[in-house]
Design goal:
By secondary structure, the protein is mainly beta. The chain is 9% helix and 38% strand. The chain has four helices and 28 strands. It has a five-stranded antiparallel beta sheet with strand order 1-25-24-23-22, with no helix packed on it. It has a four-stranded antiparallel beta sheet with strand order 2-28-27-26, with no helix packed on it. Strand 20 and strand 21 form a beta hairpin.
Length: 418
């Protein structure tokens, strides 16, 4: 955003409906200007009809032979009960192999399709039957799946554990990110004691409640929590598997207007730490040498902040010129990360490669997001965020796009020549 756009945004962001209306009018005016060409800094492959989902998981297997993806099976509308998404993969440059259809999914996080730890053979995904969500583990070599009785969010680096929460409650409080399901979300309660953050033991197919929403509400409460509806989302494991990070959010009648803090704890719930943020954390990732990187607000200033380890002390803002929200992914073996932007006034979204030391941001992608992929409201949330994701070696960049007019998966070799 330029300086004028940023000042206006900071004024209207406290009123989500006004912000949305002004954005729509502003972009509609610039729709009168002819489109420019999409920009890619490196050669790319675009596979129409597929997408992966969120930025916090990599679709690449550890050996980078396989690439996971969802296959679009429905027209552009919010997934309805009984409407599925294809689950499958590519191996090298062979044909896409579809192994199943998931009925527990959304456009932004898919069905949480992800590899089981560092495995290049087994992956996991959520689905649903009779409105009850659960997960499957699938072995490529055995062509066999096994059931986990609970939906998962993120799997630990060693493949032994997963995080979980109520997708029913998430769907109610943050439409477009949960599922139309029944999983004990206690929707009539603001901060129930019987649901919250879970740890799932994948070997024993069991789970335990680490923190209930009632407990989270009682830990260092702030005035805005009173009378609000609380929920958990965006969970991750630290690279060493010792800690879980998660977003504790609360909202009132408008799901667009929410408050957030990030917390970390050990797998048993001990050593709980709360982020030094001021009411807003949107997206974040972990990295072994660099720790937590989040787009958040610290002392009233939005930006990308390096928070360090699980204690999240001494946050440092990086790349101040990137003053709008983005989804980050570290580039393995480097002091850099990639992050995207939402569509600008001309509906172009960008991906930048950012140096953590200098803060320099290099634009490597700029692509059009056609108007039909603009979410009308939070209850019709079908927009396609780029969600850049990097392969384990740091060689490949993968992101979702609608620059061809169809939802598609784009793969780029970011080590290749310009």
């Amino acid at each position: 955003m330029n300086q004028i756009e940023k000042k206006i945004y900071d004024i209207v962001k406290r009123n989500p409906r006004l912000k949305l209306a002004m954005r729509n009018i502003y972009q509609s005016i610039f729709d009168l200007i002819p489109d420019k060409e999409n920009y890619f800094a490196y050669p790319q492959t675009i596979r129409e009809g597929y997408f992966f989902g969120f930025h916090d998981r990599s679709p690449f297997s550890a050996d980078e032979q396989y690439l996971l993806a969802h296959k679009v099976l429905i027209p552009l509308h919010m997934p309805q009960k009984g409407e599925g998404v294809g689950i499958g993969f590519w191996k090298d440059n062979e044909e896409y192999t579809q192994i199943d259809v998931s009925y527990g999914w959304n456009y932004h996080k898919g069905c949480r399709l992800q590899w089981l730890g560092s495995s290049s053979d087994c992956f996991a995904y959520n689905t649903m039957e009779n409105e009850i969500p659960f997960a499957y583990l699938y072995s490529i070599s055995k062509k066999k799946k096994s059931k986990i009785d609970y939906p998962i969010d993120t799997i630990s680096p060693d493949g032994k554990y997963a995080t979980s929460f109520s997708y029913e409650r998430l769907n109610e409080m943050m439409p477009g990110y949960g599922y139309c399901c029944k999983d004990g979300g206690y929707l009539d309660s603001c901060a129930p004691s019987d649901t919250g953050l879970y740890l799932v033991d994948l070997k024993n197919n069991s789970r335990k409640l680490i923190y209930s929403l009632e407990q989270l509400f009682q830990i260092q409460p702030v005035p805005s929590m009173t009378g609000a509806k609380h929920y958990v989302t965006h969970t991750q494991f630290s690279p060493d598997g010792q800690y879980i990070s998660f977003l504790h959010r609360w909202t009132f009648d408008d799901p667009n207007k929410r408050y957030t803090r990030m917390l970390t704890c050990r797998l048993d719930g001990s050593n709980l730490c709360i982020s030094p943020t001021s009411g807003m954390v949107s997206h974040y990732v972990w990295d072994e040498p660099h720790g937590l990187l989040a787009y958040c607000q610290v002392d009233g200033i939005d930006g990308h902040y390096l928070l360090g380890n699980h204690e999240m002390k001494n946050p440092r803002r990086v790349a101040p010129e990137l003053n709008s929200d983005g989804h980050q992914s570290y580039i393995t073996g480097s002091d850099s990360f990639v992050t995207d932007t939402y569509p600008d006034r001309r509906r172009y979204a960008k991906i930048y490669r950012v140096d953590l030391n200098s803060g320099q941001a290099e634009k490597i992608v700029e692509v059009k997001s056609p108007k039909q992929y603009q979410s009308p409201d939070c209850y019709h949330h079908w927009a396609c965020d780029l969600h850049p994701r990097v392969s384990p070696s740091g060689k490949w960049l993968c992101f979702d796009t609608v620059c061809t007019g169809k939802r598609a998966l784009c793969i780029m070799n970011i080590e290749g020549p310009n």
